[in-house]
Amino acid sequence: MAEQFWCQRGLVVVVDGPLERSTITVEKPFARIGSHPQCDVFLSDPEVPRRALYCHATDDGVYVVALWTPEEGSPQARGWVDSRQAITIGPYRIFVQPTGSIVTPLAAPALEAPEPLGDWQPLIAMGLNGQKTKTYRLSRRLTVVGRGKLSTLRIADGYVSTTHCVLYREGGRLWVIDLLSANGTKYEGEPIEVLELLPQQSVAIGNTTLTYAATGQSADTPAPATAASQMSVTPDSSIWSSSQPDYTALEDSELARAKAQWEAERQRLQSQLAELTEQLAQQSEQLRQERLRLEAELAELRQQQSQFQAEQQAAESYWRSQMAALEGLQSQLAAQQEELRCQQQQWQAEHARWEQELRERARQLEEKSARLAAWEETLLRQARQQSQSPPDQHPSLPAGPDAPAPATVAGGAEAAFGSHQAGACSAASAEQRRPQPQAVVKIDEQSALELEQLSQQITGRLIELQDSVWRRKMLKYLVAVAAGVGLLLVAIVIWQQGYVEQLLELLVPGRGER
Q1: DSSP β-bridge partners for residue 23
Q2: Selected residue with higher pLDDT from 30 and 405
Q3: What's the rounded Cα separation, in Å, for the pair 139 and 112?
Q4: Could you tell me which residue, 386 or 269, shows the higher pLDDT?
């Protein structure tokens, strides 16, 4: 790689933007201007192309090449410029001049103008996918290489950018300058920005290689019989084409050989075209059969879809009826539960009333029992007093707890009356007629009978309440079991039929949206 460029000049670029005016000095004889981040002069605006302008400095001045197609009616920047000419790129106005004093020869031939034979013109051998194809004679000092219509040397390679690189010859030397292409310009596998290309050296652009083959000959010098001279020196239209006329002179023998090569290439391409046409017909038939098969499968799938939709609608109607039946059962169960709740409240109120009545009767019985116990104690005390006192001093019997009880104290009264009538009887007779201390006063039989009847009624009522509670619990249990069995059967059927998602969608509207 050479250490020097084709001249020792740099570039001074003045950018007149919408907000400010700036001056940028580029310390090399070329500059790439655009919105690409790696441009030598970066213009940050959406209207500016990524690669807008290539500026090339020589000892004669500055030559510019537009890398984008301007709008219809706008002038295209391509040629010599001086520091007073403005180049419009989007909202920017660009002024370019080389470093040092120079007078730009605006009337000088353009660097891209073809030159007649006789000047130093190198030959570039081109290869596509590793195979050498054609040889091109560089009749211009500056050649833009790419696959777009703005390129001088057009190459039909999808991996080559529209304006990929620049070939520039000066003083018997040849340089390659990359134009920030997408896949880059590579030398020995490494990307380069600028490279002086020596004889038999090659650079790769996409799938195409450019090899510096040899130096061209003048018109009066016979060309040596080399492999390079036996090839056509004009670009092959099947691989690249030139947007400007090429005035490269060809000898008759070379033209005949080129025609023969073109004819052979044409026949080869025609045979390839026939093979491709046959392959295309076979592929078309295969695609037609595949399309028929897919259409049959699609019709079958549509039929299955319609059948599934019908089954789904039937299942939905069935499950809607089942859900309505379940809702009816739930309403009936709720009504029965409400009725049972009312009955339970009535039974609880009646039970509380009976318990209150039972407690009241028990209190009354306790009071009667207390009075009877006191009366019995009084009778026993009087009986002891009678047994200890003389027969004529027997006291009268006290009244019962509620009223006089002649039947209860009849024995004591008769003993007292007998003692007054027979006052003269002996002590043994009096002792025999005295009432016994173990005499027990019996409880009122009517109260005992009432208490027993009340206890029987309370016991019967409690048994009835227990039976009713047991029946209510059994009814609840049976209803719960029936509902559980019904829901289990519904779940089993849903699981078997695969309608879980449809049932969830029916029960929870909008579930799919969440």
Answers
A1: 14
A2: 30
A3: 9
A4: 269
